[in-house]
């Protein structure tokens, strides 16, 4: 066959294959759509209204620990602790935290926790010798005694990049935390999840922190595919007397190769440990620990699994967990957001679903036909009643669920069908997530941190099947610094973001930056709507119902008085006449000026500028009236304000012309002459003093005298 025919035939076959691709899906199967870069709208943080960047921070200091206490933002980094004003991120206090070791700068603040006495607890890595100490929130230099933390306790990370959850501090001063498992000599089963006791003295000051209980993996789990290498994310979640943890780890059940799975684990809050049986088992072991695989995958015939969870956000109102997942190098960058109902996760652990276990070394993991113990661990039984054999069975056969926690549409009823992730993006790696809930009409807006140092704003479309990214916010131009942490502040209507280089304030919205109707509409921002010629923040549209006409009124806060005659000076150009009006009405009453005119009889209408502002359900109108002109007649002026219901307010004032010749005012001229004389005398004396001082120094200029002995 000639070369040209081969070439055309090849393209024909390729074309047939491409056209036929959709046939690979079933008729009712939704083809997965992924967002491709670049985004429709990108903004630099420095160009966004109400944004802020913390000043005075240096690069490479790992600003990962952010906490809000009493309206202040506390930030921990490398050998430094800060408190910032949440409005503008101005520094309130900054103190060095160098650790207790000599010539040691490797102390990274990894825990900032508010204590019952109103102080904060600061914990740092301290060059692999973790510690905690108490500080005053009002004076960071006021510190209490340092408490050392055992490395094997896993309460505080002991290296700068060690992953851990935040602390869950209960009312009875129990600390629940998950930290990366680190195998060290003589302690191969070091705990990944621990329950500790925080002890305070009678003055509520820190005395000690000690581990009461911790999880224990079977040795077969530890060594089958190497260490599990748990990487915890987010904060522990308390729900119905149980504590939930989210992490990723090496999957022991995947014996063919080494694979990473995401997990959700549960322990009972009142777990009191078991009995001390022998050297393998201890009364310090958490008995109710159970885990399940957490899936985030496409809902297609051949699903793609996002296996590595990076962060979670828990909605306490809707009881939904939002999670971000990302592939890791050398895989092609790809990320997803999935959501999980916490009641469905709870039902999984309480259901009759089988457990999965490995009955002997080298075997495949399989279902456990019959529960070795009647009461399942997640049902929170009395753990001290188990026998040695039962406890051994719990550790070996009842720690991993056979069924998985699958991603579904979280707003549907319990037990809904598996679905696609809420958002999938190729070419991007997500690192963090926070969610602003119920913005408008139950719309949840997601703020997603990325490996490239950007924050994506996304929300679910009307059909709620997938999310739409409406904006990419670039924290620092030309710098690709991963987002390490994100903290939502409803009071500030903002997200605080920490990176290795700085701390940033990202506002939920910047509607005021859209000056025209077209730009406001094109933004597709769920926070913004165009009203009365302005792009407004529309988060709470329903809390401002229309005011009944019989209750509508206009309130005047400031205006020219009809009892005063305002002077227009014709021959004094430096004496302009400016008048001001400030008025208020209900936000939806459409406060305005009748005919857009300020009349002055027999003079011409006065020019003015107006500005408007909105606060909750009230609208404010400010007028700046320019009363200066060259007209030589006295004027009677009037302006009328009105609202939609017909109510009006009339403001009357008078302007009187002063056309006297200032040159004929002899008394004023004499005063000016006397003043000029005094100024000349002062200047002469001042110049004389300068010369005398210069001569005494032997210098030509006075400013050099400071060099004289």
TrEMBL record:
CC annotations in GO: plasma membrane
Domain Sema: 34-508
Gene Ontology process terms (BP): axon guidance; positive regulation of cell migration; semaphorin-plexin signaling pathway
Superkingdom to which the source organism belongs: Eukaryota
A GO molecular function held by the record: chemorepellent activity
One of the Pfam families matching this protein, by short name: Sema
Signal peptide feature range: 1-26
SUPFAM superfamilies, per the entry: Plexin repeat (SSF103575), Sema domain (SSF101912)
UniProt keywords, alphabetically: Signal
InterPro entries hit by this protein: Semap_dom, Semap_dom_sf, Semaphorin, WD40/YVTN_repeat-like_dom_sf
UniProt keyword Ligase present: no
PANTHER family, A to Z: SEMAPHORIN (PTHR11036), SEMAPHORIN-1A (PTHR11036:SF127)
Protein name: Semaphorin-5B-like isoform X4
Gene that this polypeptide is encoded by: LOC110990233
């Amino acid at each position: 066959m000639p070369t040209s025919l081969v070439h055309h035939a090849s393209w024909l076959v390729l074309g047939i294959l491409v056209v036929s691709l959709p046939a690979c899906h079933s008729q009712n199967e939704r083809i997965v759509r992924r967002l491709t870069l670049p985004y429709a709208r990108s903004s630099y943080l420095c160009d966004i209204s109400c944004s802020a960047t913390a000043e005075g921070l240096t690069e490479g200091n790992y600003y990962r620990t952010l906490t809000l206490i009493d309206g202040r933002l506390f930030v921990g980094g490398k050998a430094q602790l800060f408190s910032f004003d949440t409005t503008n991120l101005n520094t309130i206090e900054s103190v060095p935290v160098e650790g207790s070791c000599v010539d040691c700068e490797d102390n990274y603040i990894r825990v900032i926790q508010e204590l019952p006495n109103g102080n904060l607890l600061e914990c740092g890595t301290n060059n692999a010798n973790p510690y905690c100490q108490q500080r005053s929130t009002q004076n960071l230099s006021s510190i209490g005694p340092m408490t050392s933390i055992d490395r094997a306790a896993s309460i505080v990370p002991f290296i700068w990049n060690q992953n851990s959850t935040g602390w869950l501090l209960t009312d009875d001063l129990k600390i629940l935390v998950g930290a990366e498992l680190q195998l060290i000599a003589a302690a191969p089963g070091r705990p990944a999840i621990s329950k500790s006791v925080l002890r305070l003295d009678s003055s509520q000051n820190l005395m000690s922190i000690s581990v009461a209980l911790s999880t224990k993996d079977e040795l077969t789990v530890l060594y089958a595919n190497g260490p599990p290498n748990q990487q915890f994310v987010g904060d522990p979640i308390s729900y119905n007397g149980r504590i939930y943890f989210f992490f990723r780890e090496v999957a022991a059940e995947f014996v063919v190769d080494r694979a990473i799975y995401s997990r959700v684990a549960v322990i009972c809050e009142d777990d009191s440990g078991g009995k001390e049986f022998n050297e393998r088992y201890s009364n310090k072991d958490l008995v109710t620990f159970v885990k399940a695989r957490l899936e985030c995958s496409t809902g297609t015939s051949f699903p793609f699994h996002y296996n590595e969870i990076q962060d979670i956000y828990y909605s306490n109102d809707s009881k939904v967990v939002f999670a971000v997942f990302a592939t890791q190098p050398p895989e092609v960058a790809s990320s997803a957001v999935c959501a999980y109902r916490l009641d469905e996760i709870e039902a999984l652990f309480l259901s009759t679903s089988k457990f999965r276990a490995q009955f002997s070394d080298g075997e495949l993991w399989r279902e456990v036909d019959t529960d070795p113990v009647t009461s399942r661990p997640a049902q929170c039984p009395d753990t001290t009643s188990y026998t040695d054999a039962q406890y051994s069975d719990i550790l070996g056969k009842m720690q991993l669920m056979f069924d998985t926690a699958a991603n579904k549409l979280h707003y549907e009823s319990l037990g809904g069908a598996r679905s696609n992730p809420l958002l999938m993006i190729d070419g991007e790696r997500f690192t963090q997530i926070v969610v602003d809930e119920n913005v408008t009409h139950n719309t949840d807006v997601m703020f997603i941190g990325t490996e490239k140092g950007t924050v994506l704003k996304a929300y679910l479309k009307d059909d709620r099947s997938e999310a739409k990214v409406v904006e990419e916010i670039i924290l620092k131009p030309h710098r690709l610094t991963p987002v390490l942490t994100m903290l939502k502040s409803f009071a500030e209507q903002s997200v605080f973001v920490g990176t290795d280089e700085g701390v940033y304030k990202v506002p939920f919205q910047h509607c005021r930056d859209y000056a025209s109707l077209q730009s406001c509409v094109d933004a597709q921002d769920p926070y913004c709507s165009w009203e009365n010629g302005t792009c407004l923040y529309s988060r709470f549209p329903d809390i401002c119902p229309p005011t009944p006409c019989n209750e509508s009124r206009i309130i005047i806060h400031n205006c020219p008085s009809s009892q005063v005659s305002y002077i227009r000076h014709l021959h004094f150009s430096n004496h302009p006449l400016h008048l001001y009006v400030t008025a208020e009405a209900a936000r939806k009453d459409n406060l305005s000026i009748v005919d857009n005119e300020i009349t002055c009889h027999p003079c011409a209408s006065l020019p003015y500028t107006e500005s408007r502002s909105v606060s909750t359900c009230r609208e404010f109108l400010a007028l700046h009236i320019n009363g200066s002109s060259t007209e030589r007649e006295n004027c009677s002026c009037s302006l009328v304000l009105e609202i939609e219901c017909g109510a009006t307010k009339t403001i009357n004032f008078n302007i009187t012309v002063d056309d006297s010749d200032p040159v004929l005012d002899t008394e004023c001229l004499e005063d000016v002459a006397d003043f000029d004389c005094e100024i000349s005398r002062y200047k002469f004396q001042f110049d004389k003093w300068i010369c005398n001082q210069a001569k005494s120094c032997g210098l030509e200029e006075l400013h050099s005298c400071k060099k004289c002995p």
